[in-house]
Amino acid sequence: MRFIKKCFPIILLLASYSGFAQLSHPHFISLNLGTSIPLSEYDQLDSSITADLGNYYSFEAGAYFSRVLGVALNIGAFNNNSDKSSIEENLKNDIRFSNGKAEVSSDAWSNGYIMLGPILSLGGNKFIVDLKVLGGLMNSTRPLLNIENKSLNNTYSRNSESNASTFGLNYGLHFRIKLYKKLGLRVNAEGFMANQEFETKVQENNGTAEPTVREEKVKQEISALNLGAGLILTF
């Protein structure tokens, strides 16, 4: 949101000098993909796992009541790989895996969403800027994590089926550039925020006794910046 506030004066200037008549209703549909960058707590290592760069893909559509104001629907997903090197570095403080021989395997974080809300568009026939703040359902999967030290026969695992759903926010800044007739390029910068509560099972085995299993609830902020591009049809 802070990024959008800083860019707003520039957006107004670009829109005012677009040199083209403003569309009466700049309806659109777009297909998008790009890179997903974890932010804030989502980027921090907790007691077990963290997130790294990933990818996103989405379908978005907008319908307008006037020349500038409409409602947008955004459906998509973003996935973030697990940062295994950070996990291995953190394990050096754990006596069970401090000899540096721990083997780490993990899936990726996965987040799917459907968002709806207002969108403001400024510009002309060949260049349009979109600003949006949407809200809706976000489902997140906290990935499976396995840590094994074969020399000491210690293992640690967490169930892969650790899903949570909650209300999330999607705010964005988009640039539409006309390519041919109604087809254009859309450059995207959008953020996502949600606070999920995961219920997980942790299993540990020290090699000499029965495995211990405990259940835990983990609150995790999901916050990411998705940067990319897509094809857009404006009509």
Question: Could you list some keywords that capture this structure?
Answer:
8-stranded antiparallel barrel; single chain; about 10% helix; about 240 residues; mainly beta; Porin; elongated; 2 helices
Protein architecture, described:
This protein is mainly β. It has one domain (2-234): Porin, CATH 2.40.160. 9% of the residues lie in helices and 61% in strands. It has 2 helices and 11 strands; from the N terminus they run αβββαββββββββ. The chain has helices at residues 2-16, 84-90; strands spanning 28-38, 54-64, 69-80, 103-106, 109-123, 127-142, 145-149, 154-158, 162-180, 183-205, 212-234. It has an 8-stranded antiparallel barrel. The longest helix has 15 residues, at 2-16. The protein is elongated. The protein starts with a helix and ends with a strand. Mean pLDDT is 85; it is low at 15-20.
The CATH architecture would be Beta Barrel
In percent, how much strand structure appears in the residues?
Answer: over 45%
Question: pLDDT below 50 for ≥5 consecutive residues: which ranges?
Answer: 15-20
The residue-averaged pLDDT reads 85
Strand arrangement within the widest β-sheet reads 1-2-3-5-6-9-10-11
Q: What sequence of helices (H) and strands (E) makes up the elements?
A: HEEEHEEEEEEEE
Please give the number of β-strands.
11
Structural class: mainly beta
**Morphology:** elongated
How can the largest sheet be summarized?
8 strands, antiparallel, barrel
CATH topology: Porin
What is the terminal separation in angstroms? 28 Å
Cα-atom radius of gyration: 22 Å
CATH class: Mainly Beta
Number of domains: 1
User: How many separate helices?
Assistant: 2
The helix content is under 10%
